[in-house]
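Throughout our pipeline, every protein is held as a single compact record rather than as scattered files. The remainder of this section carries one protein's record, kept here as part of the documentation.

===
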Amino acid sequence: MKKIATALLVAAVSVGAQAEGMYGGGGIGINSVDISGLDLDDATGFQFFGGYDLDYTIGDDITTAVEVGYKMSGDFELDTQFGTFSDSADGLWASGVVSYPVSDQISLLGRLGLDLGDDDGLLFGFGGGYDINEQIGVRAEYIIRSDTTAIEFNLTYRP
């Protein structure tokens, strides 16, 4: 199922990347899970996504977009006397994104959406972006999901 979802998302991003307002990206995430009484190790995973800039703005400066992506959290591990417990939180997600420009190259980001995978439920995030040029940018975000939190570093590409 994960391979099919991944292939469909990559195909959609590849086809859509040719359209005006479309963009894609991906990167790494340092994922944490907090289960009371357990000390699970953080997991390093990765994600990729596609987005579309909406024509809707809030005020004069805040732009809006929608994004869909697939996250692979990596394995959370817990060593016990019975062996090592390992689990992950992978899956599709979708969110609305708002962006406020601080300068020509720097922007603040906020997101609200749904995780549709292993960590299903609401997701909320905030962070910042830096446009290296008109096509390439970098982002750093803090994402909170139902069971996990992540610090994500992504590269974005706009054709």
Observations:
- The two ends are 29 Å apart (CA to CA).
